[in-house]
Amino acid sequence: MDRTGVPCRYLPHDCAPWATVYNYCAKWQQDGVFEQLTRLLRRLVREAEGRGAEPSACELASQTVKTSATAHPTDQGTDTGKRNIGRKRHLGCDTLGPLLTVLVTAASIAYTAAGVTLLSPIAAAYPSVRKAWPKRTCSDCAATAPSGGLLTAGSCGSRP
After folding, report:
1. ∠ CA(149), CA(95), CA(89), 5° rounding?
2. Strand, helix or coil at 86?
3. How far apart are CA 110 and CA 126, in angstroms?
4. Which residues are CB-neighbours of 50 under 8 A, at least 6 positions away?
5. 105 near 76, Cβ under 8 Å?
6. In the chain, domain spans
7. pLDDT tens-digit map of 97-125
8. pLDDT one-digit tens code per residue, 129-139
9. Which keywords belong to this entry (predicted)?
10. Is 57 in contact with 131 (CB distance < 8 Å)?
């Protein structure tokens, strides 16, 4: 897995032919099967924890990942805070941990700009989300969701 990232052509011989597996996965991706499974599992996790089925708040976080020297220059940037050259993963997560949305950018994209960009798909897919807390101090992260609900910033990842 470290070498190849599990491409279809490296499936074990006791599995279906790689082209068949690939075609099923592509069809399921197109039909939204993976999204439906993710939503169902998130709902089951929340209910098992005694929470409502839909999240009412989320956390925003980011992580800089170094890229190889062969990565295209427009796909990477320099994270000035960490002085890393690479890409940045911006995550919107349920307060229990399950992922809500992901945005991958060049590392030079500011945490605040990406955080605000993450809010639109979260607000569209989860209208019940009314608050978002950034994982670090970031007073400009406070924004109004497209649905009109106020999304407020926490301080240093702390939640009330």
Report:
1. 90
2. strand
3. 24
4. none
5. no
6. 32-151
7. 888 988 888 777 777 777 788 888 899 98
8. 988 888 754 44
9. Membrane, Transmembrane, Transmembrane helix
10. yes
User: For helices 18-31 and 33-48, what crossing angle results, to 10°?
Assistant: 70
pTM (two decimals): 0.65
Angle (CA) 11-14-20 rounded to 5° is 60
Nearest to 89, CA basis, from 122, 68, 73, 66: 66
Please measure the distance between the N-terminal and C-terminal CA atoms of the chain and give it in whole angstroms.
41
Residue 69, both tokens = 């020297």
Strand partners, 151: 143
| Dist CA 159 CA 60 (whole Å) | 12
Q: What is the largest CA-CA distance in the chain?
A: 54
Candidates 28, 111, 141, 144; CA nearest to 153 is 141
